[in-house]
Amino acid sequence: METEVALTTVPAASTSTVGGFLLAHPVGVAVVGGVLVAATTYWLMNKFLKKKEEPTAA
Questions:
Q1: Would residue 37 be called left, alpha or beta, if left means φ above 0 and alpha means ψ between -120 and 50 degrees?
Q2: DSSP-assigned letter for residue 56
Q3: Which pLDDT band holds residue 52 (cuts at 50, 70, 90)?
Q4: What is the per-residue pLDDT across 9-48, written as a single tens digit (0 to 9) for each?
């Protein structure tokens, strides 16, 4: 029975370790930074380049 409990808790522990490693590793930091820059650029492009409706002459 103890083996079953240990096996179910291993994936949760390993994913947090992998996530911590990726954030601490320079490549992981570069990937996270790139995602943040891309998301911010996408948001700004949509905000400032959105076509505005022009009033039509009746």
A1: alpha
A2: P
A3: confident
A4: 555 556 677 777 766 788 888 988 999 999 999 999 999 9
Q: Which residue has the tokens 């891309």?
A: 38
The one-letter code for the residue type at 13 is A
* DSSP secondary structure, 8-54, as one string: HHHHHHHHHHHHHHHHHSHHHHHHHHHHHHHHHHHHHHHHHSPPPPP
- What does pTM read for this prediction? 0.50
Vertex 11: Cα angle to 25 and 39 (nearest 5): 45
Could you give the CA distance from residue 17 to residue 28 in angstroms, rounded to a whole number? Answer: 13
Tell which residue, 23, 5, 27, has the closest CA to residue 15. 23
